[in-house]
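Tutorial handout. Part one gives the primary structure; part two gives the three-dimensional structure as tokens.
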Amino acid sequence: QVQLVESGGGLVQTGDSLRLSCSASGRTFNSGRMAWFRQAPGKEREFVADINWSSGSTDYADSVKGRFTISRDNAKNTVYLQMINLKPEDTAVYYCAAKRFSDYRYLYWGQGTQVTVSS
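Part two.
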């Protein structure tokens, strides 16, 4: 099993920045992807960004391109989400997720961290 713990959420104002962290523990793996998803009230969970754990290649949702940056620290088993120029529509619970390349879908999830952007 892999345990994921997010941190770094909070209440910020429009235009502010925030950095989320996701620490992995347990039976971690060296090949796979880690991702950030988010879920706003009354909406379905949506993909935000992901990163190839070994190569570092990344992918982003169109809504966050140019504002969010996903990165990882392999030595710390931690993935980050740097968010700048935050908007009220970024308000959501942000979840960290992980999967091996052989997994069809993301199998491991954190408990989520709340990000609230006030206008």
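Part three, for discussion. The mean pLDDT is 95. The first strand starts at residue 2 and ends at 7.
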